[in-house]
Amino acid sequence: GFVLFIFSTLLALFPKTLPRAAVRKELLKRQASKVSSTKMEPDPELPTSFKDMVKTFRRIIQNPTLMLNNFAAVFYFLGYLPYWIFLPKYIETQYRQSASASSLITGSAGLVFSAIGILLSGLIISKYKPRARYMAAWNVLVGAISVMGIISYAYLGCTENDNRAPLLPNGEMNPVSECNARCHCDYVKYNPVCSQDGRTTFISACHAGCRTVKNINDTS
Predict the structure, then answer these.
(1) Which of 160, 185, 200, 203 has the fewest C-beta atoms under 10 angstroms from its C-beta?
(2) Angle at the Cα of 35 (from 32 to 36), degrees rounded to 5?
(3) Is 202 helix (H, G, I), strand (E, B) or coil?
(4) Which of the 8 DSSP states describes residue 198?
């Protein structure tokens, strides 16, 4: 809060109009006054109506470029947000990482590479000024690469994952085994742990039959 107050105070010191912009605005006013000595009356405002709104909305719908771009953005975010939200849990279960390590990987990687991509793309666009057709083709190419990368995650993972939790005939997971039958793990929080050989994943330490906890390198 204190840091925000300091920066907001510094931003409040900036003028409403920069000096160069004020000079350009004044020159435009003088040129307009020279061209027309008579005072231009503003155009009367047309009354708002529901018919005009329908016409405008119809024109927007009939614009294929705008509508396809909007649909692409909506479908992209609807498909990408669940993946991004559950990515830490995916890394935690598939690659046997702790919750903190999974969140650190996804958060740091996402923020760093997003910032680099935004800055680099802004620099390239402002310097080379590519055409709209090239920009659209680049967006399609990057989107296709992103989709292929996400699909490839279905084929990546650890072998023998969760083999200590076999499936029942109805498709549900059966976490009960001989070593945890008397541990009463029905309401234990989901927190995957690995066996000592690193090949087996258990739903929690209780399901693994653990009775004690040993901290190694700040991890249980």
Answers:
(1) 160
(2) 85
(3) strand
(4) S
Q: How many CA atoms lie within 13 A of 142 on its CB side?
A: 9
CA–CA separation, 191 and 205 (whole Å): 8
Q: Which is nearest to 204 in space by CA: 101, 98, 105, 104?
A: 98
Q: Give the Cα separation of 111 and 84 in Å (integer).
A: 12
Distance between CA atoms of 1 and 32, rounded to whole angstroms? 47
Q: What is the pLDDT of residues 128-152, one digit of tens each?
A: 888 888 888 888 898 888 888 878 8
Q: Which residue has the tokens 């890394």?
A: 91
Dihedral sign (CA 165, 170, 172, 178): negative
Please state, in angstroms and rounded to a whole number, the distance separating the CA atoms of residues 99 and 102.
5
- Tens of pLDDT along 144-199? 888 888 788 777 765 554 445 555 566 566 667 777 777 777 777 777 777 776 66
Average pLDDT for the chain: 76
For residue 131, which phi and psi values (nearest 5 degrees)? -70, 160
Q: Rounded to the nearest 5°, which phi and psi values hold at 215?
A: -85, 125
Tally of residues, the chain: 220
Tokens of 195: 């066996």
* Residues 6 or more apart whose Cβ sits within 8 Å of residue 52: 46
* C-alpha closest to that of 88 among 192, 214, 210, 196: 192
From 161, 162, 202, select the one nearest 180 (Cα to Cα): 202
Q: Given the DSSP bridges, would you call strands 193-194 and 201-202 parallel, antiparallel or unpaired?
A: antiparallel
